[in-house]
Design goal:
two-stranded antiparallel sheet; 2 strands
């Protein structure tokens, strides 16, 4: 028991060691050259896919790369809070230190994952960036499903591991669409929205609200929902995010307080998506030589959303807090 308590009190220290070790890896591989650029990346001196001019220095996109340190800072704050909870015997986030540590790890991983893509412009960097995003977004809707169907931690982690492993495999060996043309990140956002509504309203009304909300969000993100419905034989994949509303026998035993942290998280997350569009070479506001890049702001806003959702879920009240 003493050894377990010492381990819990060391979460923050281990996180610091991991960050330091990752920084060493970047220095080692960067000093030897990053290797050949991915086919979809621009040559040195040209404007990158995210507006910033490609540099011949240590990082190919210095500003966009360093903007990812926001994720690292946010992640370390989470590890510190989890360590404090463990030290003071407080209930952990998600009702489980294991899932709480997974969330903090995935949030931190967003930093070096994206840094690898913007900093190196290699195929491996792009792969790591996308894997880091999926490792984060999967947690939300899988955790919500865990609650709605009263699944065990073991089932949660097995499901998470299978999905993430297959995505990592398929992105590297097949394509970014799981081999079947499905964008798992976009799908996960829809699944997160629908399951979040069902957590609040696990009834018929909740199913209707989830249906309408997901359709509105799809429209807001530029999808012609009417056209998709008329061509359902070709566009059925776009409606996979509605699957949760058809799951039978759902129930929710948690209470969540959405003000202020959930709203701060949602606002920062969706504002980041809007600003992300500004950081495109075709946008009139694109200035490739500026020290203030829109894509860097996208990273910082997303980092704010990760810590906001952490604080939001930390206030979750549950009748069952037995699995640690």
């Amino acid at each position: 028991m003493k050894q377990k308590n010492n381990l819990q009190k060391s979460y923050f220290s281990y996180a610091l060691y991991s960050v330091f070790f990752t920084a060493i890896l970047f220095i080692v591989f960067g000093s030897n050259g990053w290797g050949p650029a991915a086919q979809n990346e621009q040559a040195i001196g040209e404007i990158s896919r995210w507006c910033e001019r490609v540099s011949s220095g240590f990082f190919r996109e210095p500003v966009n790369t360093l903007g990812n340190l926001g994720f690292v800072v946010a992640g370390l704050i989470m590890f510190y809070k989890i360590t404090q909870d463990a030290t003071n015997n407080r209930d952990p986030l998600f009702g489980s230190f294991k899932i709480a540590l997974l969330y903090a790890s995935a949030s931190t991983f967003l930093g070096p994952g994206s840094m690898a893509m913007h900093g190196t412009h290699t195929a491996f960097g792009a792969w790591l960036d996308n894997v880091s995003m999926i490792s984060y977004i999967l947690i939300f809707w899988l955790y919500n499903l865990k609650i709605l169907k009263n699944l065990s931690n073991r089932t949660f982690f097995i499901s998470y591991s299978i999905l993430l492993s297959y995505y990592a495999y398929s992105y590297w060996f097949l394509d970014s669409g799981l081999g079947v043309g499905v964008d798992l990140f976009e799908l996960s956002i829809g699944l997160w929205i629908s399951t979040e509504i069902l957590i609040k309203l696990p009834n018929l009304l909740g199913r209707v609200v989830a249906l309408v909300t997901v359709i509105i969000v799809m429209q807001l993100f530029g999808l012609d929902v009417v056209n998709l419905i008329l061509n359902i034989q070709d566009s059925w994949k776009s409606f996979l995010n509605l699957i949760p509303i058809f799951i039978p026998n759902i129930n929710s035993n948690v209470q969540r307080t959405y003000r202020p942290w959930a709203f701060i998280g949602y606002i920062s997350f969706y504002s980041a998506f809007w600003i992300r569009e500004i950081g495109m070479p075709s946008h009139p506001w694109c200035n490739p030589d500026s020290l203030l890049q829109a894509h860097m702001i996208w990273h910082l806003l997303c980092a704010i959303s990760t810590i906001s959702f952490f604080n939001f879920l930390q206030k979750e009240q549950s009748n069952e807090r037995s699995e640690l």
